[in-house]
What we know:
Number of helices: 12
Order of helices and strands: HHHHHHHHHHHH
Helix content: 55-70%
Radius of gyration: 21 Å
Structural class: mainly alpha
Number of domains: 1
Amino acid sequence: MSSVESVLPGPARRESVGPLRMIATDLKYQQLSYWRNRFGAFFTFFMPIMFLVIFGSLDSGQKLSSSATPGPALNFDQYFVPAILTLGVISSCYTYLAVQLTTQREEGLLKRVRSSPLPPWAFLVTVVLSCLIRTAVLVGLTLGIGAVFYHLVFPAHAALALLVTLLMGTATFCSIGIAITVIIPNADAAPAVVNGIYLPLMFISGTFFPLSPGSQISKVAAWFPVQPFVKATFAAVNPNVHGLGIEWGHIVSMAIWGAVAIVIALRRFRWMPSRKE
């Protein structure tokens, strides 16, 4: 029986290999593919570190204004390090997934996945898990650099608050990255669409500097998921925050965006390439 199964086509052998094993195998090859693509890894992984070193060094020693955070004055780096961390997470999840999945779709690779023994849901789970691995490495490196070179302080509540916030941020922006492929017509347009949406939000959401809570720009940015992510991550390492340090309002805001993105992805995600005129 085993010799017969070995020559059967993929769909007939699907039940002989468990989904967990298929996910583990696909995850292994996705990681190998990612790290071998040095150019892609540079822009999605090392670029945030460059921003941290450049802007963190330029603004080192400055103090946050009292309007940015109540209580004793904090060093600017106490805000900037977690803020730039959110940039890295979004780049690793939203930006990378949107461009990568669109490119794979237009090259016909997603079409092949759909017809392979790997279930479509397992492929998407693998994609998200791959983002989690990259995010974990990026978080560790960013926080380590922040602690060693920029005197980032970790209050008692930081571990749990950061874990909850970063997990929700990763899930949210992975979902948005998958959903946004619905409006991207082709691979050439992917970087323009992705960055055209994200870059303006990055600047108006306080990624590089805190915004006054009462400003009109801040009020507009509050409707989008980037600012809640920035504020929740900063609160997780803010020594002036008491309690758990978890900003549940911002967590819920990100969760809503993530849920809407999941619904869109489930209903509209395309596995087939666009028709060529």
